């Protein structure tokens, strides 16, 4: 196996809806992904968390910090006065202007981590963010401070959604989105490393989240131009009414799920000499 290159394949959004969680567990059982991030503010987290028990030693289970979908786990009178998180298009500009209250953000981060530990019985293996909110101003330092205060340094890794610009430019699918996130994440790895947390080095998997591009092409590109310690994100799952009520990515999740289950995906990994690993220290 020494001739194989290691990569983490992480399925986002565990807990957003039962169909998504079920699809992720099926892939984990097949060995077709190696990590998943949980949205612990969503009711589906508590319903589905137990289904991870048979695979928890095979995949890394982390926190998918969420500040844009569903409801916070406690009062947030400034960020979520209606009891619902704002969409990213409202969260982002105020975050860039540092207009969100740090204390309110920090308290919700703590609640979502607590909800993970309470249900899963352990610290998250890693932390990332739904729609990459964890790299944004105000949110970024609050997250690092909370994790450090919990003694997680050296035990938990954080997902860096940036990559080399040359690699991004050579992956046409989702290129614009990748460049925007790359800019937003500037300095993230440096801050995280200074606090004692490791990160991945290399990130891909940006996709339109619709049926405009075949799943096979998305993953063929995502698993190209990989960094030294790469992580590829994905969004597989089944569509149900719960998902339809809150997320625009629907049929694309089923397409990703079917492709990741297929012989074509297994052959892609074999042809490129790749193996999926579940923990950062393995890469």
Structure described in brief:
The protein has helices at 18-30, 43-48, 88-96, 102-120, 139-149, 165-169, 175-184, 188-194, 215-222, 241-244, 251-261, 263-271, and strands at residues 5-14, 35-38, 60-65, 126-129, 157-158, 203-204, 231-234, 274-276. By secondary structure, the chain is α/β, with parallel strands linked by helices. Strand 6 (203-204), helix 9 and strand 7 (231-234) form a beta-alpha-beta unit.
Commentary on this structure:
With 283 residues, the protein is of the alpha/beta class. It has 12 helices and 8 strands. The protein has helices spanning 18-30, 43-48, 88-96, 102-120, 139-149, 165-169, 175-184, 188-194, 215-222, 241-244, 251-261, 263-271, and strands at residues 5-14, 35-38, 60-65, 126-129, 157-158, 203-204, 231-234, 274-276. Strands 1, 2, 3, 4, 5, 6, 7 and 8 form an 8-stranded parallel sheet that branches. α1 (18-30) packs parallel to α11 (251-261). The chain starts with a strand and ends in a 7-residue tail after the last strand. The model has no long low-confidence stretch (mean pLDDT 96).
Highest CATH level, the class: Alpha Beta
Distance from first to last alpha carbon: 13 Å
Helix content: 25-40%
Count of DSSP H/I helices: 12
Q: Report the biggest beta sheet as strand number plus sense, adding barrel if it closes.
A: 8 strands, parallel
CATH level-4 homologous superfamily: Glycoside hydrolase/deacetylase
Secondary structure tally: strands: 8
What is the CATH T-level topology? TIM Barrel
Work out the radius of gyration.
Answer: 17 Å
Order of helices and strands: EHEHEHHEHEHHHEHEHHHE
Uncertain runs with pLDDT below 50, 5 residues or more?
A: none
Mean pLDDT: 96
How would you describe the shape?
A: globular
Strand content: 5-15%
């Amino acid at each position: 196996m020494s001739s194989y290159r290691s990569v983490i394949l992480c399925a986002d959004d565990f807990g957003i809806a039962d169909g998504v969680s079920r699809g992720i567990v099926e892939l984990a059982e097949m060995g077709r992904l190696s990590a998943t991030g949980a949205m612990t503010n969503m009711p589906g987290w508590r319903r589905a968390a137990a289904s991870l028990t048979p695979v928890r030693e095979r995949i890394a289970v982390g926190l998918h910090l969420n500040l844009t979908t569903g409801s916070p786990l406690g009062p947030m009178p400034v960020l979520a006065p209606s009891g619902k998180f704002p969409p990213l298009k409202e969260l982002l500009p105020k975050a860039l202007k540092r207009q969100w209250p740090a204390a309110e953000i920090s308290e919700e981060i703590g609640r979502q981590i607590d909800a993970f530990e309470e249900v899963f019985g352990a610290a998250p293996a890693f932390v990332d963010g739904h729609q990459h909110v964890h790299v944004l101003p105000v949110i970024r330092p609050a997250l690092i401070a909370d994790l450090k205060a919990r003694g997680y340094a050296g035990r938990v890794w954080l997902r860096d959604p940036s990559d080399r610009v040359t690699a991004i430019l050579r992956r046409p699918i989702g290129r614009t989105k990748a460049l925007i996130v790359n800019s937003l994440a500037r300095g993230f790895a440096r801050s995280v490393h200074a606090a004692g947390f490791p990160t991945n080095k290399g990130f891909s998997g940006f996709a339109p989240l619709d049926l405009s591009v075949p799943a096979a092409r998305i993953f063929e590109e995502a698993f190209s131009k990989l960094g030294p310690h790469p992580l590829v994100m994905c969004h597989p799952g089944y569509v149900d009414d719960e998902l339809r009520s809150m997320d625009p990515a629907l049929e694309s999740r089923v397409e990703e799920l079917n492709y990741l289950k297929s012989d074509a995906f297994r052959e892609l990994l074999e042809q490129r000499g790749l193996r999926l690993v579940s923990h950062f220290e393995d890469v």
